[in-house]
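Chain A, query sequence.
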Amino acid sequence: GISDDAMKALGEAFRHAPALQSVSLQGSGISDGTVKALAEAIRHAPVLQSMSLKFPDIISDDTGKALGEAIRHAPALQSIGLNSLGISDDAMKALGEAFRHAPALQSISLQG
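Chain A, predicted structure.
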């Protein structure tokens, strides 16, 4: 899986890749901390167009809020795919609110 520290290191790399357009994390170790680090990293990827994440468990409230923050800082995001065992009510609310602030969003795929 992807550790929180590994995601933080990857986030630092995002600072040097401002043209990054796609992120896909399909590992079994995506945790709340990993998503929080990803949300911070996305602040440095202004042209990110596609994000695909696969979670081993239910998307928790904290993870949903962190994803919502990531989406708010990705104005070019066109496509998002989330695969999990489910999404908590508060996580879905946070995502729904964030989607309203994603002017380029064209495709949402929620599986679980």
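The first helix runs from residue 4 to 14. Helices lie at 4-14, 32-42, 61-72, 89-99.
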